[in-house]
Structures are given as C-alpha cells and as structure tokens.
C-alpha cells in the first residue's frame, strides 16, 4: 500500500471514529410523539433493551407505521454503523484479515460502545439505551465489511 493511500485510510478511520463518538456518545433526544420502543427496561437512569430480536418479538406492540419505520431504520443503521470503520481497518491492518478476528473486533467495538453509553447515562443521563440487538447488528455490519473486502480481493484471500 502506498503511503498516500495509508494516510487517507488513517484519516478516514479517525474521522469516522469521531463520527461514531458524536453519534453514540452524545445525549439522545426524546423519541418523537407516538414513537415508542417496546420491551424497554429501566433501572434508575439506566435503560436496557435485553430481549434478543426485540423488533420481532414485540412487533405486536407496535401501533403505527411511524413506529415500524423507526424500528426498521434503527436496525439498518446499526448494521451499517461499524461497516465503514471495519472496512478501512481491514485495509490498514492485514493481521485482521480473518473471519474470527473481524467478528471479534466488531463485537468488542459494539460492546465498548454499549458499555460506554451505560456509563454516560449513569453519570450524565444521556438518554441512551443498552440494546442486546445492537451487539449482533453492529457485529453483522463488521462481518459484511469483511465479506465486501473478500469479494473485492477474492484472488488474494484463501479464508
């Protein structure tokens, strides 16, 4: 890889990392009126959504098209939250180019985000939610970045 390409990728990782910080670690506004997330559990200021596949299990509680669209959009955004970051890291760090490493990295990044949101909620009441589904959707996004990388470089990879 050329130095220029590496510099661009490093800058991309830094800028996108900053975007993740702004998106995930700042106070979350209240949901619009009429949009609620079913399955929420609160413990003081800490808010959890611990039901795996909550969007499917609690679909019967959704009462409007706005809620359906909100839930669908939230899941899609979670799948693609880590995609750009992991895709760039795959290029920058050849030692990551294994399925197990990508899945582990993506999961740990997601878990770090969720746990940091809990700490921020505890300290500052940022209105964030620890969601189990975020862990698997973010991890899936990292894995899809790996699948894209492998597809683009299928002649160079034997994994």
UniProtKB/TrEMBL annotation:
Positions of the VanZ-like domain: 14-150
Keyword set, alphabetical order: Membrane, Transmembrane, Transmembrane helix
Protein name: VanZ family protein
Segments crossing the lipid bilayer: 7-28, 68-90, 102-123, 135-152
InterPro entries per record: Teicoplanin_resist-assoc, VanZ-like
UniProt xrefs under PANTHER family: MEMBRANE PROTEIN, MEMBRANE PROTEIN-RELATED
Coiled coil feature spans: none
Pfam family of the protein (one): VanZ
């Amino acid at each position: 890889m050329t130095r220029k390409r590496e510099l661009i990728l490093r800058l991309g990782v830094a800028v996108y990392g900053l975007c993740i910080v702004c998106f995930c670690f700042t106070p979350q506004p209240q949901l619009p009126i009429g949009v609620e997330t079913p399955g929420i559990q609160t413990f003081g200021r800490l808010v959890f959504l611990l039901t795996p596949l909550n969007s499917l299990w609690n679909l019967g509680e959704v009462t409007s098209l706005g809620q359906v669209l909100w839930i669908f959009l939230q899941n899609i955004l979670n799948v693609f939250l880590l995609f750009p970051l992991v895709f760039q890291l795959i290029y920058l760090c050849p030692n990551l180019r294994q399925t197990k490493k990508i899945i582990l990295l993506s999961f740990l990044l997601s878990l770090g985000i969720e746990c940091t949101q809990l700490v921020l909620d505890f300290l500052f009441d940022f209105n964030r939610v620890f969601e189990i589904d975020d862990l698997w959707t973010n991890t899936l996004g990292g894995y899809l970045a790996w699948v894209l990388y492998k597809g683009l470089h299928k002649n160079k990879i034997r994994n």
